[in-house]
Write a structure and sequence with these properties.
Elements lengths: L16 E8 L5 E6 L5 E8 L4 E7 L4 E5 L5 E4 L17 E6 L5 H12 L13 H7 L6 E3 L6
Parallel strand pairs: 1-7, 3-8
Antiparallel strand pairs: 1-4, 2-3, 2-5, 5-6, 6-7
Helix pairs in contact: 1-2
């Protein structure tokens, strides 16, 4: 889960370049997002399709995140919810950075699936334990600005 806005990382400076290739290894489209100097979210790529790559010139102190384009559920980049690029050491190729599904509990996987099938208005009609109602009604919303360098 993303930290709150008070704890959210932010870009610090642009002294050390890094050259990365984001590779979507999930089975759904993802949005690739930079966290700017104010901690604001700037979407650099919208709907990076499964199996596709996105080349990005960035900096070591610039954090990146990604989420499922449809559900806004966080995914991991290089095994972390917040990715900080590795410094460029003069090599001829970019650093491959993999975007993957996070490891979730069976309960969280089931909640995500039910959310995708049922609107918030229909949740209380389900014959499920009452303590699951609130969890199913929660829908993530994100305030993000688009910097359309690619995607749809």
């Amino acid at each position: 889960m993303m930290p709150s806005s008070e704890e959210r990382p932010r870009s610090l400076h642009h002294d050390w370049p890094a050259y990365v290739t984001f590779i979507n290894r999930t089975n759904f489209s993802v949005d690739v997002v930079w966290i700017d100097y104010n901690g604001d979210l700037i979407r650099y790529w919208k709907r990076l399709e499964p199996g596709k790559r996105y080349y990005q010139n960035t900096y070591v102190t610039h954090p990146w995140i990604a989420w499922n384009s449809d559900t806004l559920e966080n995914v991991v980049i290089d095994n972390s919810f917040v990715y900080l690029p590795k410094p460029w050491n003069g090599e001829r190729q970019r650093t491959n950075v993999y975007i993957d599904r996070p490891m979730l509990s069976l309960l969280d996987i089931c909640v995500q699936k039910v959310r995708s099938l049922v609107s918030t208005d229909q949740v209380e009609e389900l014959e499920i334990p009452i303590d699951l109602f609130d969890k199913l009604k929660q829908r993530r919303s994100v305030e993000v600005r688009d910097l359309m360098t690619g995607g749809q």
